[in-house]
Structures are given as C-alpha cells and as structure tokens.
Amino acid sequence: MSSLNFEKPIIEIENKIEELRKISTESGMDLNKEIETFEQQAEEYKKELYANLKPAQRLQIARHSDRPNFTDYVSLITDDFVELHGDRAGSDDSAISGGLAKIDGQTVMLIGTKKGKTTKENIECNFGMPQPEGYRKALRLFYHANKFGFPIVTLIDTPGAYPGVTAEQTGQGIAIAENLREMAKLDVPIIAIITGEGCSGGALGLAVADRVLILEHAYYTVISPEGCASILWRDAAKTSEAADVLRITARDLLDLKIVDEMVTEPLGGAHKDHEIMGQNLKKAILENLKQLNGVSAKKLKEKRYNKFRGMGVVLQ
C-alpha cells in the first residue's frame, strides 16, 4: 500500500519496529519492551497526526488509489445487488453504476459514481467523471425507486462531471439540472454519502438528499482546489492555499450545515481497513434509514426543500 508524503515519520517508526522484530527473531534477544515502546509512539503519533490534518492532506487521503470504490462498498455493505444498466436512450455510462440492493434485509436503490483500481479500469469508467447518459441513467433509477417506494442511497466519489466537448454537445448541464429538480420532488427517503471526492455539479447531481453524509477524510466543494487556484491566483501551485480557504473538509461542512453527519474512518483513512470502513458506513446508512422511514412524502419534500434553501444564508 502506497504511503503519502506526510506519513513518512510513521513509516520510519514502523520500519524501525520491523527491524527490531527481525533482530529479536534472528538473535534470540528479548526486545519486546523496545518494540512495545515504538508501537505506542507510532500509535500516539498517528492519532495526533490524523486528528490535525490540513485540508490539502485530507485531499490526498480522499484521492488515495486504494480507497474503497463503489464496487468495494457493494460487497461490504449489501447482502445482494442487481445492477440495472442504461439510460433507455441508447447509452450506458460506466462512470455511474446503480441497481437494487439489500442492506441488512432492506431493499434500497443504490447508485454511485464509479472509479477503478487500475489504469484500465479507470479508463473504462472515465476516472469517475460521468457523462450526461450517466445522470440520465441515475434519473431513470430514481424514478424506478420512487414508483415502488424504495429508499435511495447514493455514494459519491467524483472529481466532477466530464468536462469534454461531447458531454456538452449531449446536454451535460441540463442532465445535471434535471436530476437536481427531480430529486427534490421524489417521495421516497434519499441518503447521499460523499465517500471520497465530491466536486462541483458532478457530485451535486446525485446529492439532493434528505440526509447528506460525508466520510471523515472526504471533501465536498463547488470547485476543485486546483481549479480554484488556477482561477483566483492563476497558479496551480497554490492548491494547498485554495484547499484552506474553500472550507471543504468534513468538519467545515458540518459547521456550515452543508452536510448532516460525518462517518468515522479507520485511523489513517478508509484505505487502511476496508472492512471497518464498510461496517461504519453500513451502520450510518441503517441509522438514517430508520429515522427517515415512515416520514410522509409531503414532510420529506418540505424538509428537503427547506434544507437546501437554508444553505448559504448569512446574517445581515
């Protein structure tokens, strides 16, 4: 598993622990006390480091190549999953996947942006950047869930909607806008979770929800820090500064009431332990479904409307 630049002190301590274990095994010396001391130091350092990460460092964790993707979460949180393909207009975008799933026996419509693990997989799903047909497929699945009364759960990890010419030619803007409008009107509970990257309208097109959750080291923003730096300072090297001022981290978003809940990640990030991350996410989904199930369609839509209308309000 690849390490990040700011994790080098941890790696050095862990390498020292392995070296002591090797010496202990080969020489027969009892170095357990020394090993325990280093292990304790490593654990304390990790807790302090990850509790005080800068936004730019959380950005690195959110983009880690080993972070669980949509396919991983399907295996981790569902009992059964039947993928439904196509937008019924002749296209099927691999950057958005969705279908009927059972989570602890409860049927939901599970939809998410999809990234790959390898270069080949990422090319197949366009590095998690959906095209218009992806949003149209998602909308078709929203309607299906609404018709049969299934709650909707969306998992979002995207650097943004695909910005290419073909996407614009085939209606990228209107496809996202229609999703925003129609999600606001759905009668069923909607839970959206930012699992990694949540950039711009590409993320929002799946996130008009009754509850918006975010993983501890994920981020959610109107524009990527790189894009912000290029526009404001005309210098991509100021990405770290842009990440600071954008207030994109989970705790910032909770303070701003953009998201409703932060889901704890394993120490070091979701990529460190997929199983624990899956358990934490599943628990959060089930708790929120329990709170939303039984709420009338009228009340859901009213609260959903007020939730989004209240964002960005400032004191006069």
Could you explain the architecture of this structure?
With 316 residues, the chain is an alpha/beta fold. It has two domains: 5-52; 59-309, 2-enoyl-CoA Hydratase, Chain A, domain 1. It has 14 helices and eight strands. The chain has helices spanning 8-27, 32-51, 55-62, 70-77, 119-124, 132-148, 165-169, 172-185, 200-204, 225-232, 239-246, 250-255, 274-292, 297-309, and strands at residues 80-83, 96-103, 106-113, 152-158, 190-199, 211-215, 219-221, 261-263. Strands 1, 2, 3, 4, 5, 6, 7 and 8 form an eight-stranded mixed sheet that branches. Helix 4 packs across helix 13, helix 6 packs parallel to helix 8 (172-185) and helix 10 crosses helix 11 (239-246). It is globular, with a radius of gyration of 21 Å. It starts with 7 loop residues before the first helix and ends in a 7-residue tail after the last helix. The model has no long low-confidence stretch (mean pLDDT 94).
Topology:
Layout: H1 8-27, H2 32-51, H3 55-62, H4 70-77, E1 80-83, E2 96-103, E3 106-113, H5 119-124, H6 132-148, E4 152-158, H7 165-169, H8 172-185, E5 190-199, H9 200-204, E6 211-215, E7 219-221, H10 225-232, H11 239-246, H12 250-255, E8 261-263, H13 274-292, H14 297-309
Parallel strand pairs: 3-4, 4-5, 5-6, 5-7, 6-8
Antiparallel strand pairs: 1-2, 2-3
Helix pairs in contact: 1-2, 4-13, 6-8, 10-11
